[in-house]
Amino acid sequence: MKYDASFTADYRRVTRRYPCIKRELGDAIRELSEHGELPDSYGAHLLGNPGGNYNGHIDFHLSDGKVDVVVLYLPHKTNPEIRFVRMGTHEELFQGNVRQPRSGACLLAAFGKGCAIVLPWSP
User: Fold this and answer.
1) Angle 99-102-103 (CA atoms, 0-180°, nearest 5)?
2) pTM of the shown model
């Protein structure tokens, strides 16, 4: 797993707004890490918009659509590495002034109330 700096910043911003999604995001990260894919309940799908932002990325939804939170990740083409790129609302990611991700960061991934781990990212 790798985490872009933009994902780390998005994580902090979004989880302040919607703290209830921390556990679900942790569960999703574990599912991807252990099985390489998510259950259908996350609605994961490939973004196929040639020339558009995040073409070829996979997005999935948190909180069963009760809140508008989307997570974007990019599967590696030649090894089983997953790179988390962005997290936010549809408007923030697809209609607003979207910045492309920077490299070099770490992610504070929360796995329940008061419990977190730091996941390093290196290029």
Assistant:
1) 165
2) 0.70
CA 82/CA 112 separation, integer angstroms: 22
Identify which of 115, 121, 109 has the alpha carbon closest to the alpha carbon of residue 30: 109
Residue 14's nearest CA partner among 26, 4, 22 is 22
Count up the domains in the chain and report the number: 1
CATH number at residue 64: 3.30.2310.20
Provide the 3-class DSSP secondary structure of residue 119.
strand
Furthest CA-CA distance within the chain? 41
Residue 36, domain extent: 2-121
In whole angstroms, give the CA distance from residue 87 to residue 15: 10
Rounded distance between C-alpha atoms, residue 69 and residue 48, angstroms: 19
Q: What is the pLDDT of residue 53?
A: 79
pLDDT tens for each residue of 77-120: 776 788 999 999 888 887 754 444 444 333 333 333 333 333 44
